[in-house]
Design a protein that fits this description.
Keywords: Cell membrane, Membrane, Transmembrane, Transmembrane helix, Transport
Oligomer: single chain
CATH class: Mainly Alpha
Family: Belongs to the MIP/aquaporin (TC 1.A.8) family.
Distance between the termini: 22 Å
InterPro entries: Aquaporin-like, Aquaporin_transptr, MIP, MIP_CS
Number of domains: 1
CATH topology: Glycerol uptake facilitator protein
Membrane topology: Multi-pass membrane protein
Largest sheet: none
Helix content: over 70%
Order of helices and strands: HHHHHHHHHHH
Number of strands: 0
Radius of gyration: 18 Å
CATH superfamily: Glycerol uptake facilitator protein
Subcellular location: Cell membrane
């Protein structure tokens, strides 16, 4: 049970901080670097805090890859995915719940020149940090998410096998770099739970497109597992 709670909390931290950085800076137009570092540092902190308990996956695609690599049992995999999805959904609900207070802040009032905006209007306009892509670009988005998720999880699978390597920092920075690359094209999910949770609340095109992220990210994790097994052959587990 401790592992599942750790996965819930770690995923909550990742999604709440990452998407919150997008939502609560909408009035000041956040930079790609700010968004990327928010996700990357949140992941690094979550791994550092809970990695010794659950392995610090916080991502169904990572858990799938680890199960294929036999670094996680299939029974645990099911529990991890449920915990991750719940953590992400609760995080998006928390971000949504904070919008009303954010709309009353001086920053928003100044940006709107004193005009009033409802929570529904804000979500329709600014969203909840959901990932999305242009209409008609599903194939390009799929390939982009697939390749970058593969690279993301491959690095995770390798560095977590190495002793004396600051895995949380490397993984967090690697996520930040990949998000900067992907933001203009897919938003850079690399994580089915992170893609699904805000889309549930925003709905519309974001929810209609979410299948691309789920399929591409899971398949990226599968490929990363087989490639990681090749590179990690005869490498002992990190202490």
């Amino acid at each position: 049970m401790r592992k599942y709670i750790a996965e819930f909390l770690g995923t909550f931290i990742l999604v709440f901080v990452g998407t919150g950085s997008v939502v609560y800076s909408a009035a000041t137009t956040p930079s790609p670097l700010t968004i990327a570092l928010s996700f990357g540092l949140a992941l690094a902190v979550a791994i550092a805090a809970f990695g010794h308990i659950s392995g610090g996956h916080f991502n169904p695609a990572v858990s799938l890859s680890m199960a294929i690599q036999k670094r996680l049992s299939w029974t645990e995999f099911g529990g991890y995915v449920i915990a991750q999805l719940l953590g992400a959904i609760v995080a998006s609900a928390a971000v949504f719940g904070g919008v009303a207070t954010y709309l009353k802040s001086p920053t928003v009032s100044q940006a709107l020149s004193g005009q009033k905006m409802t929570v529904s209007q804000f979500v329709n306009l600014a969203g909840l940090g959901q990932t999305n892509f242009a209409d008609g670009e599903a194939l390009s988005a799929f390939l982009f998410e697939f390749v970058l998720t593969f690279l993301f999880i491959l690095v995770i699978s390798i560095v977590t096998k190495l002793a004396n390597v600051p895995a949380p920092i490397i993984i967090g920075l690697w996520l930040a770099v990949l998000i900067i690359v992907a933001l203009p094209i897919t938003g850079g999910a690399f994580n089915p739970a992170r893609a699904l949770s805000p889309a549930i609340f925003v709905q519309g095109k974001a929810l209609g497109h979410v299948w691309v992220y789920i399929a591409a990210d899971l398949l990226g994790g599968v490929l990363a597992a087989f490639v990681a097994n090749f590179f990690n052959k005869d490498v002992p587990e990190a202490a």
